[in-house]
Amino acid sequence: MNPRHRLRSLFTLVLLNGVIPIRTQPLFLVNLLASPLSFLFFITIVSNGTYLPYGVTGGMILTMLSVGTTLQSDLTHYRHDLKFQDIVVASPVEAPVYVAGMALSELVYSLPVLAVFVVIFAIEGYVTLLSVVVIAGTLVLVWAFASALAFTLATYFQDVRETFLFSPLISLFLTVLPPVYYPIKALPMWAQFVARFSPTTYAAGLVQGAVGLAPLSFGLAVLDWGVLAGFTVALFLLAGLKARWKEP
Amino acid sequence: MPVAIRAEHLRKVYPHSPAGVAALEDLSLEVPTGRVYGLIGRNGAGKTTFVRVCATQLTLSGGTVSVLGHDLEREERAIRARIACIPQESRPLYFLTVEEVVYLYLKMRGIDRTEARRRTRDALEELSLTEYRRRMVSRLSGGLRRRTLCAMVLASDADLLFLDEPTTGLDPIARRQVWEAIRRTSREHRTIVLTTHYLDEAESLSARLALIERGRLVLEGTPADLRARVRYPYRVTIQGAFPRAELESYGRVAEIEGGLLLFTREAEAREVARKALERNVRLSMGPVSLEDIFLEVVGRSIEEETPREEAEA
User: Fold this and answer.
1) I want to staple B31 with a disulfide (CB 3.0 to 4.6 A). Which of B37, B57, B204, B264 is the partner?
2) Cα(A110)–Cα(A224) distance, rounded to whole angstroms?
3) Is B3-227 assigned to CATH 3.30.2350.10?
4) Are residues B193 and B54 in contact, defined by beta-carbon separation less than 8 angstroms?
């Protein structure tokens, strides 16, 4: 496949798994809104509006992770129930194009959720050029590692129901427990140390810092970017090693 | 004749196979280019495993395979550029329309918009799917879904097509439409590897056939070759009073409704026909069908395995 054909395949997959299902069933868009907006509502009410920005930054990260867990279910369903992956394997479409196309297609579902959060931030006066750049870069990395994790896990699932077991666990360990919806300083020291093992801690540090919720020096930002990028590369390497394009 | 697939001493053992039982064992065969090649055998005989190995979907445990002149282990990408496959039990994505299933598959393969549209229109027309083109897959019957997948793969630009039980669930008219599309594709000098449980389909479409049993190649050749190589190439149907014991000296006898069925050789068939005429008994005779061959070969294999299993028990 030449680069033009690869691009054509990629956009076809985005259309096939992202745009067309939304056209057929617009409720797919609302589905991804439900969890982050519920958290936002709860946090805002409980804190009398003080933690609203945390609800928004946390919601953005949760949305990107949800993209990964949905991808994991779709990949498993397509592989085992529809044999769609077998059809793609026996075709000129290469594995990285398939993974990228499927991951991008899931991103389509997140756009309305992100738009809602951007509007809230704009109304609250948090939108600056710097914050937009930092938040966008961070969310791209979260989406990338969530997709790599999804592709690796989907390789091992034999039934789509198994993905339903893992999705809440991923959500718990990567968004609820780490300081994604609250400042890391709210945790005791030992818990802050444990939280450093989660890539979302660094993503939240960057996003919260970009909108002025937590101090973010240049050095700290470089460290957070570096660790987050390191996690992403590690998960991609894991996907490269463990994910299977053809069956053993 | 140029060869599309050359498999030599193929062996496949699935990772979690009980006691390391091989799904394919020392299987060697050649699929000629530009023909329909039929694979027949019982459930679990190894047909789908063979297809999945050659379609680069499954890793090989041993042996060598060359597909369209490319080594399967080292040149997968070159092979994938020229193949297409309908896996067994595959289903089209339920939220697409019939037209989108075919069109988007072609676009995914890198075909440009104009060409993809033309191929989609032609394939839908050939398989009588035009009237359903705007209907969503979720609202189609199982047979129409299967036909949509056939249209999708037959519309492709692939030189080698793997069709794993493509007509399962189709009505007789739809089956014949798919057969015609397969024949047309074959006339374009494209190769088709077809697995099926419909032996009339295998016989009607295939230039050559392979009968696989317990992972091994049991018989291979043209339908005529296969007939010539079975123990009893003639079937004689006798309707009327004819002593079964006498018939058993000529070959294998089975009871059918209103009479007896004898599998025998040509000379013996003539002898039985002469005796039947003398006794004024109705009789018909002819070469065995593929189904008869299948039952004889596979039946013998089952008989051989049964005492062993009983001994093990």
Assistant:
1) B37
2) 24
3) no
4) yes
| Residue whose token pair is 């309908």 | B86
Reported ipTM: the value is 0.89
Task: Give the angle B100-B101-B106 at the CA atoms, nearest 5°.
Answer: 90
Paired tokens of B305: 């395995």
Nearest to A21 among B85, B95, B162 (CB): B95
- In angstroms, the separation between the Cα of residue A190 and the nearest Cα of chain B is 43
For residue range B174-232, what is the model confidence (pLDDT) as tens digits? 999 999 999 999 999 999 999 998 888 998 999 999 999 999 999 999 988 887 778 88
Sign of CA dihedral A159, A164, A167, A169: negative
Task: Judge: domain B231-312, CATH 3.30.70.
Answer: yes
- Cβ(B138)–Cβ(B95) below 8 Å: yes
A182-224 pLDDT, tens digit per residue, is 999 999 999 999 999 999 999 999 999 998 888 888 898 999 9
Nearest CB among A78, A94, A247 relative to B58 is that of: A247
User: For position A21, what pLDDT does the model report?
Assistant: 92
Provide the residue ranges of all domains of chain B, joining segments of one domain with +.
3-227, 231-312
Q: Could you identify the residue written with the tokens 């009327």?
A: B240
pTM higher than the cut 0.80: yes
Structural element, H or E, at residue A1: none
Rounded CA separation B50/B10 (Å): 9
Cβ neighbours of residue A58 closer than 8 Å, sequence gap 6 or more: A36, A39, A40, A43, A175, A180, A181, A182, A204
DSSP class of residue B308?
A: H
Q: DSSP state, B289?
A: P
**B117 in contact with chain A, both atoms CB, cutoff 8 A:** no
Please say if the pLDDT value at position B89 is more than 50: yes
CB-based contact, B80 to chain A, within 8 Å: yes
Spatial contact of A223 and A154, defined as CB atoms under 8 Å apart: no
